Amino acid sequence: MSERPDRRPTPPAKRPGRLRPSGPGTTPPADGGQEPAAAVPPNHRSVIDSAVYRDGLRVASPATLADTFRQLREQPDGMAWIGLHRPTESELHSLAGEFNLHELAVEDALEAHQRPKLERYGDTLFVVLRAARYLDAPEEVEFGELHVFVGPDFLITVRHGGAPDLSSVRRRMEENPALLSLGPEAALYAILDAVVDGYAPVVAGVQTDIDEIETEVFRGDPAVSRRIYELSREMVEFQRATRPLVGMLHGLMAGFAKYGTDEELQRYLRDVADHVTHTSERVDGFRQALTEILTVNATLVSQQQNAEMRALAEAGFEQNEEIKKISSWAAILFAPTLVGTIYGMNFETMPELKWAGGYPFAILLMAMVCVSLYVIFKKRDWL
To answer: Do 244 and 275 meet the contact criterion of CB atoms below 8 Å apart?
Structure first.
């Protein structure tokens, strides 16, 4: 274990406009628990768990940050592991002053909404992780954010969200003192492993959703397009959480020789790197599959619309044919009606009224007009 660095008496200066103001927040859940939504007084505690370890064993469980600092000073080869949930500025700046945390990293930890990254400030590592968990009831993926400061004799976690379950990580490490005695890097790799392992249920849940979506697409469910779109957005977020981790872990692996990383920790990190690479590839496959499903759905919807338009066109054509027939018979019947109507008028001065052949001529004229119209309409396929 390297010698503990000198503590700075005052926290670093704040950059205006970046830090989140302290004030009312949410009651911090037990490490890794579900976040309550109820508001609490401004003096709520953000420290979920704080402990000092020596040779992999917990030797102190301070109630406050000040007690943690004091206990750590009393343990020459000790290590502090502090878990925070949405800390206030004063709490995080107190840690920054004690452990020489860089002001840019402090601002990022307060503000959250950061992309996964790994940065080194002197002998301190600053790691940003995006955890995920699958919610069965709404069939959604929930994302949380975790910031980790790793120094020679301390590890500080700052959570924004319910995942991951860091209490189980701490218990597992405390049950393996030999591994925890390797220092803060061992705890960091355990946290990385927990975050990456948390992706497995998400991958399984998303695979189930995609299988259901495929069934809905070919069943013609009208609501499937919205579900495809929402799941695609979640996969974009999932990809943003997993893809940077591949480069981050390879960066840590590249520093094995330079920083003298223990062989056991190297094996842990290689295993985590393999898992995150596999997960990243699965997420890429999900995005491609959803894109193809959306294309197929659009094609099926277009085919359905074309079939409906064709049915409407056929119905319109049949209706038009019926109108032609009705109009043709109306025109045929109109000719004798016209002649009969004219000669049915009671006017004495009308021509041919006294002609003996007028009646047969009128009948013949009406028949000729009707036959002529029938022949014309028949040639045009109106009848």
So the answer is: no
Sheet of 117-121: strands edge to edge?
Answer: 57-60, 47-54, 79-85, 154-160, 140-150, 124-135, 117-121
Coil, helix or strand at residue 54? strand
| Helices of type H across 182-262 | 184-197, 199-219, 224-254, 256-259
**CA 56 to CA 175: how far, in whole Å?**
9
Measured CA to CA, the distance from residue 2 to residue 78 in angstroms comes to 10
Supply the pTM of this predicted model: 0.68
Tally of CA atoms within 13 A in the half-sphere of 253 that contains its CB? 15
DSSP code for 39: B
DSSP summary character for residue 30: S
pLDDT in tens, 206-216: 999 999 888 88
Output the six-digit token pair for 11: 């926290």
Q: Which of 75, 105, 87 is nearest to 42 (CA)?
A: 87
User: Is the pLDDT at 38 greater than 50, yes or no?
Assistant: no
Q: Are 366 and 340 in contact (CB under 8 A)?
A: yes
Q: Which pair of structure tokens corresponds to residue 379?
A: 């040639």
Q: Which helix H or strand E contains 84, and what residues bound it?
A: strand 79-85
Question: What one-character-per-residue DSSP string does 274-303 give?
Answer: HHHHHHHHHHHHHHHHHHHHHHHHHHHHHH
Cβ neighbours for 48, distance < 8 A, ≥ 6 positions apart: 28, 29, 30, 31, 83, 84, 85, 159, 166, 167
Please tell me the predicted confidence (pLDDT) of residue 12.
37
- Cα separation of 162 and 170, whole Å? 16
Quick one: which H or E segment has residue 61? none
As a whole number, mean pLDDT of residues 61-90 equals 88
User: What number of other Cβ atoms are within 10 A of residue 355's Cβ?
Assistant: 9
Tokens of residue 108, six digits:
């990022």
Q: Determine contact, residues 339/301, Cβ cutoff 8 Å.
A: no
Q: Which residues contact 11 (CB under 8 A, 6 or more apart)?
A: 93, 94, 96, 97, 106
Q: Can you spell out the DSSP letters for 127-150?
A: EEEEEEEEETTTTEEEEEEEEEEE
Q: Are 118 and 251 in contact (CB under 8 A)?
A: yes
The arithmetic mean of pLDDT across residues 271-294, rounded, is 89
Looking up tokens 């909404």 gives 113
Angle between helices 224-254 and 199-219 (to 10 degrees): 150
